[in-house]
Amino acid sequence: MKNIVLTGFMGAGKTEAGRELSRILGWKIIDVDDEIVKAQNMTINEIFSKFGEPVFREMETEMIRKVSQNRKVIISTGGGAVLRQENLDILREHGVIICLRAGPETILRRTKDNNERPLLQVEDPLKRIKELLEFRKPFYEKADIMIDTDEKTPFHIAEEILERMGWKR
Length: 169
Ligand code: S3P
Hints:
Layout: E1 3-8, H1 14-25, E2 28-31, H2 32-40, H3 44-51, H4 53-67, E3 73-76, H5 85-93, E4 95-101, H6 104-111, H7 125-140, E5 145-148, H8 154-164
Parallel strand pairs: 1-3, 1-4, 2-3, 4-5
Helix pairs in contact: 1-8, 2-4, 3-4, 6-7
Bound molecules: shikimate-3-phosphate.
């Protein structure tokens, strides 16, 4: 059985949908960012400000390699993980890659009260979200399955994932 790998932009609902999947399947959820935070004993903001994004991306690939050794788990990745083909190759070896998609306004609504996302700590976050979404679109579309999450609850997103994978009884 393949792992379930959740990709998608910040605020696309990976964490919440992952928790629902974990509850439904009884599988453990591993959040790549949380694992990096634990391993470094620093927040994502601290890692970005102290070492910069390129170092974070190295840590991310290393952690993706590590967590991909698990079986029958849900792996929730950070929004930029898809930017490296190497990450996708590692994740796909034992997993199905699901990309959760949301529109810029939904993303803004879901992310605005959380200041733990260094890439969105700018004057005009909506503009930044639109730019990043535009640039990253072809990378997100490399997923095996794309799912829209606007207006959907985490439970419905989880159900849709299982349905699209052909795992729903
Ligand atoms: C990032 C997304 C974040 C985190 C980091 C960079 C990105 O994860 O990895 O702030 O480049 O989109 P979430 O998607 O879980 O917020």
